Amino acid sequence: MRYYVQFPAGTGELVAESIASYVDSPDVVYADDSSMIFESDTRRSVVEQIPFVKNSFTVIADVVRRHIEDGVMELTDTIRSGGLDAYADTFRVMFHVDGELVPVNPRVKSALESAITYASGQRMVGRGTGEEYWVVGRTDFDRFMLCRRHIRAKRATKAAGAISHELSSLLVAASHPDRGDVFLDPFAGSGSFTNARLSFPAKRIVYSDTDLKQLRSDFPQAVRESRDIEFLAEDALALPSIKDHEVDVIVTDPPWGEYEELPMELPEFLDATARSFDRVLDRERGRFVLLIARMAADTAVKALTGNNLTIASVHEVLVNGHPATVLIGGRGDA
After folding, report:
1. Is 119 domain-assigned?
2. pLDDT 10s digits, 140-178
3. Residue 158 domain-assigned?
């Protein structure tokens, strides 16, 4: 099966590292900084639930890219024989080329709509609920695709300033989750990373933040009452409840020093953070994913590598419009 997925702009490298946590043996056909086309035997129902994806599609047909209206007519011809599964009674069509919605000659659009109606038995509507069929063209990809957009469940609204569902899930996936993991977020705040880690089996999931008492009232009820998360209100630089080297993976977003007061100068704070990581992470397979302000990234790298940790990859992203850097690493090649 061929799938097309869209994700937050600028996270393409992270998605390439993380997609295999959700999809079996993805064979990537095309990728850019906000989308990917891949082939996999993974079921549609799994792909449509990938949490760091904004939109996902099944590719129904594709043709050589040419003038949009010629391409649409060729796609129309490929589906006239029928056999499209219907997941709703109604549908509409959209044309999305090089990142923008584009107009198409009404006669050409009507021909495609008629072919979809014949193939699926669905009724075309201009607006409202139902399925969406997209004709998609991507820059530097030599095919036009007819795609069926997956109907995805709406997510709960997050607090202002919280890490988005997409980014938090993406960073957790980049940590290569394992069912035997002891997972820790020592600067857990609103709980974005611990909540995202619930999507994967784990031995333990540990939330820690000194402001737990104030923050907990804003957690979703299911999270507040969860027996799958162990809640601690401890200083991330000490973590007295965590034994030496008992943590397999840390995914966290420490204070950046831009808007919050730190207990010490930023280099000293990041060095203390790295020492804490070194103490609690497993000596052999310990690993981490750290989200930090881009201006502090070099300082964070120096602190981590100076405390027995290595950097495997570095990715620049935006967090609520602010430049940030993701550092992925661990012990040796972890």
Report:
1. yes
2. 999 999 999 998 766 655 555 568 888 999 999 999 999
3. no
Query: Are both 141 and 169 inside the same structural domain?
Result: no
Residue 84 burial (CB count, 10 A): 21
Distance set, CA 205 to CA 64, 119, 227 (Å): 48, 47, 10
| Residue 311: per-residue pLDDT | 97
DSSP letters, 5-62, are EE--TT-HHHHHHHGGGTSSS-EEEEE-SSEEEEE-SS-HHHHTT-TT-SEEEEEEEE
- Tell me if 28 is assigned to some domain: yes
Q: What is the pLDDT of residue 162?
A: 67
81 in a domain, yes or no?
Answer: yes
- Decide: 265 and 306 in contact? Cβ < 8 Å: no
Of residues 268, 261, 266, 273, the one with CA closest to residue 295: 266
| Token duo for residue 236 | 């991330």
- Per-residue confidence (pLDDT) for residue 165, from 0 to 100: 83
pLDDT of residue 150: 92
Question: Are 56 and 48 in contact, with CB atoms under 8 Å apart?
Answer: yes
Structure tokens at 57: 């599609």
Give the C-alpha separation, 177 to 191, whole Å: 17
CA-nearest of 176, 174, 140, 148 to 34 is: 140
Domain count, the chain: 2
CATH number at 289 reads 3.40.50.150
Is the pLDDT at 334 greater than 60? The verdict is no
Residue with tokens 């607006």: 127
Residue 232 Cα distances to 89, 201, 207, angstroms: 49, 20, 6
Of the three residues 116, 149, 182, the one that is the final residue of a domain is 149
Distance CA 62, CA 246 (A): 50
Phi and psi, residue 114, nearest 5°: -65, -40
Report the first-to-last Cα separation within the chain, whole angstroms. Answer: 32
